[in-house]
Specification:
Keywords: ATP-binding, DNA damage, DNA repair, Exonuclease, Helicase, Hydrolase, Nuclease, Nucleotide-binding
Protein name: RecB family exonuclease
Number of strands: 6
Region (Disordered): 231-257
CATH topology of the domain at 121-211: Lambda Exonuclease, Chain A
Radius of gyration: 21 Å
Number of helices: 10
CATH class of the domain at 121-211: Alpha Beta
InterPro entries: PDDEXK-like_dom_sf, PDDEXK_AddAB-type
Largest sheet: 6 strands, mixed
Strand content: 15-25%
Domain PD-(D/E)XK endonuclease-like: 17-277
Helix content: 40-55%
Structural class: alpha/beta
CATH architecture of the domain at 121-211: Alpha-Beta Complex
């Protein structure tokens, strides 16, 4: 590991997931709310589209855990129905309609799979490290095709995907690197499986493109780690509210400036929008079910 030039002590690795790095890129203020402020600021109501995504992911993971003879589309539909998350919808009717649509997604998707081809991993956690960052994450599915591993990521959003989504994804690149190092097999192909349309978007990385993604992750980690350290130094001496008030202490301007809001369309979907005046001014309020496709 790198050495600090004056103290001669090992540099502490920044431990994170790709999600944490992307949160820093999207909005440092949301990053602070999510990972640093304790207690965590209250979130808005749950999102219906998140309920759909989690329900579908859980059903597909459970399907692969079934014995071979039960890996049928009908069983996939049953698993979806049993594990349906009924949060964020306008009413029971909308929830039931989307449960049926999600069931159609998983039954149609699994009908095209060969249940005899066992994945290398399902909901598999992988990790890797450099001299700067310790990265870990959980992959939806890890296949082996020929002599190489393939990272598979399920998507349920309303927006169709294209090749750039797979090529530019920091998370998928990190998963490929970590999978290769954990499993000791090459991994260059990453795939996005969009269940609403049944489309598969893929990208074949090179060693060079994966190295660029990893270098980018280190750059983000360095920025975030420096802000983290400043925050923790302040937090260690901050005066905490007494009594029943468990809200975090007021963040001084010099610390708040390290975590500026990055306003834009994403502010409408931020769980912490109510705590961010800039985000509220830059976006319209969304109802919990507005993220569902038409």
């Amino acid at each position: 590991m790198d050495q600090l030039p004056l103290e001669g002590m090992p540099r502490r690795l920044y431990a994170c997931t790709p999600s944490r790095l992307n949160t820093w890129l999207d909005c440092p203020r949301r990053y602070r709310f999510t990972y640093l402020d304790r207690p965590t600021p209250s979130k808005g109501p749950p999102w219906a589209h998140t309920s759909v995504g989690i329900s579908v992911h859980n059903a597909l993971a459970a399907w692969w855990r079934e014995p071979y003879e039960r890996r049928t589309p009908a069983v996939a539909g049953t698993l979806l129905t049993r594990g349906w998350i009924n949060e964020g919808f306008r009413d029971a009717e909308q929830s039931a309609s989307w449960r049926d649509r999600a069931r159609d997604m998983v039954t149609g998707y699994t009908a095209a799979l060969d249940p005899a081809v066992e994945p290398v991993g399902v909901e598999r956690t992988v990790a890797t490290r450099t001299s700067v960052v310790a990265l870990s994450g959980r992959i939806d599915r890890l296949d082996q095709r020929g002599g190489e591993l393939v990272v598979v990521d399920y998507k349920t959003g309303r927006r169709p995907l294209d090749t750039d989504d797979a090529r530019s994804s920091l998370a998928l690149a990190v998963y490929a690197i970590a999978s290769s190092r954990v499993m000791h097999r090459p991994c260059h192909r990453v795939e996005l499986h969009h269940l609403p349309t049944g489309s598969v978007v893929e990208w074949e990385h090179t060693d060079e493109s994966l190295a660029r993604h990893l270098s980018h992750a280190e750059e983000i980690a360095t920025e975030a780690a420096e802000a983290d350290e400043r925050y923790k130094e302040w937090s260690a001496t901050a005066t905490r509210p007494k009594g029943a008030d468990r809200s975090p202490p007021r963040v001084p301007e010099e610390i708040d400036a390290l975590f500026p809001p990055r306003t834009g369309p994403l502010c409408s979907w931020c769980d912490f929008r109510r705590h961010c005046p800039e985000g509220r001014a830059a976006s319209e309020e969304r109802r919990p079910w507005d993220g569902l496709a038409d």
